[in-house]
Specification:
- The chain has 10 helices and 10 strands.
- It starts with 38 loop residues before the first strand and ends in a 33-residue tail after the last strand.
- Helix 8 links the parallel strand 8 and strand 9.
- The C terminus is likely disordered.
- The chain is of the alpha/beta class.
- Strands 1, 2, 3, 4, 5, 6, 7, 8, 9 and 10 form a 10-stranded mixed sheet that branches.
Length: 322
């Protein structure tokens, strides 16, 4: 099934797997928390992605407001569920991309953007027409429709995607999305196919990624078994056509500390080693991992509208409930 990425898609929204049908164009918020007004929380150089994405110069990260998932452990809750962000036009979004290029960014890193897919497509095409020469990275939770991935394949060069769960039960408990494993698998296949069709994985001379797929997996406390099952699934679907990033940076937020249980603590070294060893045993050739101390460090930037404001800024009221 195909999808047309015109602004008419906001009329009865089916841009994400929730397919909530919200009249976002009439000011109604979808299950992503957003209406049809594009909102951005930050646009700045970002140094905390994987080395092929951030390098030494930094990735040009643009953080979008809203998210189709409701992860109980989310670190970006100010923008994912609390709707922080300033309203901008697609033209202003294109300007932000060009400004980041002027600051020396290695790429344009669009963070959780696809519930605004029509705006994103319009802005990338406009920016390219105005001189954008950087790779475009789609930084996603993995909870995306394969048809939307395919519809954006000509404007996205690098897919930086999560694969969070293998278990539907765990996905239901922690992200209210029991269909996550199936949806993420279909999306990953579409991402790999789009990169393959464009010529396959490609790096610049400095090691930064020009084209490719990086699959991220965050190891959760007490769930190393599901993490290993995720890696089994990724290997089955994509093998070494993807880079793998196994993360131990899980940090309990206030809600998880109140909740108690395993999610109130960090990941142990033993849990992390189990998952890394499994990745190696499967045969992944390109594995990115994190060294100790990540729980005490902040990988979350300040969501303070840095780099967002411009001459076309408009700030209508926030989205209404469904």
């Amino acid at each position: 099934m195909g999808v047309a990425l015109s602004h008419a898609a906001y009329g009865s929204c089916a841009l994400c797997p929730r397919r909530c049908g919200a009249r976002r164009d009439a000011g109604r918020a979808g299950l992503c928390g957003m209406d049809a007004t594009l909102r951005v929380a930050r646009s700045a150089l970002h140094l905390w992605e994987e080395p092929p994405i951030s390098g030494e110069a930094g990735s040009g990260a643009i953080f979008f407001s809203g998210c189709p998932l409701r992860c109980v452990f989310c670190q970006n809750h100010e923008i994912s569920s609390e709707s922080f962000g300033l309203a901008v036009s697609a033209a202003r979004l294109a300007e932000m991309m060009l400004e980041l290029q002027g600051q020396g960014a290695l790429n344009i890193n669009l963070v959780t953007p696809l519930h605004f897919a029509p705006h994103v497509r319009e802005a990338v095409l406009s920016a390219r027409a105005a001189g954008l020469a950087l790779p475009v990275v789609c930084n996603t939770s993995g909870y995306e429709l394969a048809e939307v991935v395919r519809a954006l394949s000509d404007v996205v060069d690098v897919w930086l995607t999560d694969f969070k769960y293998a278990s539907p039960q765990l996905a239901r408990e922690l992200s209210a999305a029991p269909d996550y494993p199936e949806v993420a698998a279909e999306a990953l296949v579409a991402m790999v196919e789009s990169v393959r069709a464009a010529g396959g994985r490609s790096l610049s001379g400095d090691g930064s990624m020009r084209r490719g797929v990086i699959v991220r997996h965050l190891v959760l406390p007490s769930h190393a078994d599901d993490s290993c099952a995720v890696l089994d699934r990724v290997w089955e679907l994509a093998g070494n056509e993807v880079d793998l990033s196994v993360m131990n940076q899980y940090t309990p937020n206030e809600a998880c500390r109140r909740r108690g249980g395993p999610l109130a603590r960090g990941v142990t070294e033993e849990e992390y080693e189990i998952v890394l060893c499994h990745a190696d045993d499967l045969g992944f050739e390109r594995i990115w991992w994190q060294e100790g101390g990540t729980v005490s460090e902040s990988f979350v930037p300040a969501f303070d509208a840095t780099g967002v404001e411009g001459p076309e800024l408009a700030c209508p009221p926030g989205p209404q409930a469904l």
